[in-house]
Specification:
Strand content: under 5%
CATH architecture: Alpha/alpha barrel
CATH class: Mainly Alpha
Oligomer: single chain
CATH topology: Glycosyltransferase
Number of domains: 1
Largest sheet: none
Number of strands: 0
Number of helices: 12
Helix content: 40-55%
Distance between the termini: 72 Å
Structural class: mainly alpha
Radius of gyration: 22 Å
Order of helices and strands: HHHHHHHHHHHH
C-alpha cells in the first residue's frame, strides 16, 4: 500500500466530520453565521444597548459580560481596540468603563479605578476617536456639539453621486445608516442618577465646564491612527456650517430614509444576520419600534 493509500481513510474521515459539522451549523435558509470576534467595542455596545432599551440582564449574563469586558485590560489599566492590542485606546477604554458601570460595577473596584486613571491621564474622553464620542453622546455622557457631523441629508443625493451612502462600502454603509439617524435627531438617553455619576467619573474637570466644539477633532495619540486627509479637513467644517441653514423639512425627509433602511434590514433579516450588524441593528430596531427607547 502506498503512502497516499494509507492516508485515504483518515482524509475521508476528516472530510466526513467536516461536512457533518457544516450540516449541523447551517441555517434553514442555507447560510452560515460567522462569529465576529476581536474588536473590543462590540461587547460594550451590546451592554449599552441593553441599558438604553431596558432589556433585562440576568445575573449570569451580567457576570459574563463583566468578565468579558475586563479580559482585554492591559497592564497599564487601558483597553485596546482589539483583543490582541498591546496599547490602549481612549475610545474602547471609555465605552468599556461606561458599560461596566451600567452593569452595576462600583467605581472603586481596582480594575475600574485603573481604567479610569488611564483615561484621565490620556485627557478624558474628549480625546477619544469619533466613534467613542458618538456612542457616549447617545448615552448622554458627551455633548453632540463635540461630535463630527454625520449628515443624514447624504441619503437625498442622487444614486449616481459618489457620496450617496448606498455607494459606500458595505461595512461603512451599515454603520452610517443608524449613526445618521441618531445624529440627525441628536438623540440622548435621559440623564438618570447613574449616568450623572459616570459623567463625573469620566470628566473630573466638570462636564459643564468643557467647551465641546473645541474637541471635535481632538484625539489622543492612541486614537489618532490614520491622519485626516485634506478633503476631510475641508469638508467637515463646511458641513457644520451648512447644517445651520438646512430647513427642518429637509432634515425630516432625510431622516425618513435611514429609518426606512433600518426597517428594511430588520424585515429581511439583513442587519441581524450580518456579522457587522451589532452596532446598528439593536439601537436601530430600538428607535424604529420605540420612538422613546425608555418605554
Amino acid at each position: 500500500m502506498s503512502g497516499g493509500d494509507a492516508l485515504r481513510p483518515a482524509v475521508s474521515e476528516s472530510a466526513k466530520r467536516l461536512l457533518g459539522f457544516l450540516q449541523k451549523t447551517q441555517e434553514p435558509d442555507g447560510s452560515w453565521l460567522v462569529p465576529y470576534t476581536g474588536p473590543n467595542f462590540l461587547l460594550p455596545l451590546y451592554v449599552i444597548t441593553t441599558y438604553l432599551t431596558r432589556h433585562p440582564v440576568s445575573e449570569t449574563e451580567r457576570a459574563r459580560f463583566v468578565a468579558g469586558l475586563l479580559k482585554p485590560q492591559l497592564p497599564d489599566g487601558s483597553i485596546g481596540l482589539h483583543e490582541e492590542s498591546v496599547r490602549g485606546a481612549v475610545f474602547t477604554s471609555s465605552i468599556s468603563y461606561a458599560a461596566l458601570r451600567l452593569l452595576g460595577e462600583k467605581p472603586d473596584r481596582i480594575e475600574l479605578a485603573r481604567l479610569r486613571d488611564w483615561i484621565h491621564r490620556m485627557g478624558t474622553p474628549v480625546k477619544a476617536a469619533a466613534w467613542g464620542k458618538f456612542i457616549l453622546s447617545i448615552l448622554n455622557l458627551y455633548d453632540w456639539s463635540g461630535v463630527s457631523p454625520v449628515p443624514p441629508e447624504l441619503y437625498l443625493l442622487p444614486k449616481w453621486f459618489p457620496l450617496q451612502p448606498i455607494n459606500i462600502s458595505g461595512y461603512v454603509r451599515v454603520v452610517y445608516l443608524p449613526m445618521a439617524y441618531f445624529y440627525g435627531h441628536r438623540w440622548q438617553a435621559p440623564l438618570d442618577p447613574l449616568l450623572r455619576e459616570i459623567r463625573g467619573e469620566l470628566f473630573p474637570q466638570g462636564f459643564d465646564q468643557i467647551h465641546w466644539p473645541r474637541h471635535r477633532g481632538d484625539l489622543a495619540p492612541t486614537d489618532h491612527i490614520v491622519p485626516e486627509g485634506f478633503l476631510l479637513k475641508v469638508c467637515l467644517p463646511l458641513v457644520r456650517r451648512l447644517e445651520k441653514w438646512i430647513p427642518s423639512w429637509i432634515r425630516r425627509k432625510a431622516l425618513a430614509l435611514p429609518k426606512e433602511g433600518v426597517g428594511l434590514g430588520l424585515r429581511t433579516h439583513l442587519l441581524r444576520r450580518r456579522t457587522i450588524g451589532l452596532c446598528p441593528s439593536s439601537p436601530g430596531e430600538c428607535l424604529l419600534q420605540h420612538p422613546d427607547p425608555f418605554y
